[in-house]
Specification:
The structure holds 2 protein chains of 2 kinds.
Chain A: H1 3-22, H2 27-45, H3 48-56, H4 62-101, H5 122-157
Chain B: H1 4-7, E1 9-15, H2 22-31, E2 35-40, H3 47-52, E3 57-60, H4 67-80, E4 85-88, H5 99-108, E5 114-118, H6 123-127, H7 131-148, E6 160-163, H8 164-169, H9 179-189, E7 194-198, H10 205-210, H11 214-229
Parallel strand pairs in B: 1-2, 1-4, 2-3, 5-7
Antiparallel strand pairs in B: 4-6, 5-6
Helix pairs in contact in B: 7-11
Classes of the chains: A mainly alpha, B alpha/beta.
Amino acid sequence: MKNIQILLLTMLVVGTVLFFTRNRTRLIDRIFVLTFVLAGAVLVSFPELSDQLASLLSVGRGVDAVMYFMLVFLSYTCLQLYAKIRSQDARIVDLARFIALNSVKLPESMEDSMPDVLPDVLPSVLRIVDARKELESEWIAAAEAEAESETQPFAKAG
Amino acid sequence: MRGAPEQNRFVVVPAYNEASVIGSTVRPLIEAGYSVVVVDDGSSDGTWDAIQQLPVFGLRHPINLGQGAALQTGMTFALRQGADYVVHFDADGQHRPVDIDEVMQPLLEGAADVALGSRFLNAASAAAVPFRRRVFLRGATYVNFVLTGMLLSDAHNGLRALTRDAAKRIQFRETGYAHASEILHQIRSHRLSYAERPITVLYSDYSVAKGQSLWNGFNIVFELLMTKLFQ
């Protein structure tokens, strides 16, 4: 086995391990990557195969044939990624629009405006906030009383 | 009942980093009685604070999306508020509030579903357009013709008026400046009627600096082609 073969096979194995451990992927992606890696491993181990493939396709050398396939494959991947980015952008736009439409500043409210989030829910939210504040002040009072009772002995001792 | 019909006319003003001019752009619109919707497109310069001082509907994108997206957000909101008509109006002060009547007229007469402002239909207004802008816009009208099949006198004019029905049907998917071409395409595909009306574009140093370059024009064409490919 030549050094280059060892190098390439190692890279393939490391890449595959990284892909399967780091990325949570769909089944279709896994099948795709596995096929790709196996094909790569076979071609690296038996380089004569690519020459046979090349002559079958009337291409001069095996390396050229592999490169042509790579080119097509990479272009396809680029387009696929571009389409994915576009659909992701569209979703980001929808999300940002949703946020904008749910926190509208009204003409009546100049200066510090209350976001217009579900106005009928607002009173109950405010009640909860009030109740919470009341509870907190009770806790503070209790904690203060406790702290005072703890300091009492010292006060007496002093 | 002063201003009653104007209240159902919603003027949508997309604003990206226009803090210094948004007040002076919007005030005459409020005085004219229109319902004004300012969409802050994720500005970083205090545009949102400036909007707080104004009696307008203020919407804010949490991130910058582009003019087309801001217009769409404003239109969606205006329709929810029961708008009978939606007007697009630029924030940088390049449009005159009086020209809103001009683009509204064909809609009120029932002659068109969409009215597009054009700075080239009136000789005085056309002469005021700087030479490079004129060349750029003329080129853009032909690009639009190739891409949308509609040959207009002005390519990228931000002043437009739409009936409620037209505003419902037209959905901008172009988030950037390419929406100006997209609207033509959608007018055609939804079989809406349209009219061009003469309006005047005011060229201040400010609005020229914020205007589009030739390079941007290439970007717009690229975006349009990509949308066609990836529909």
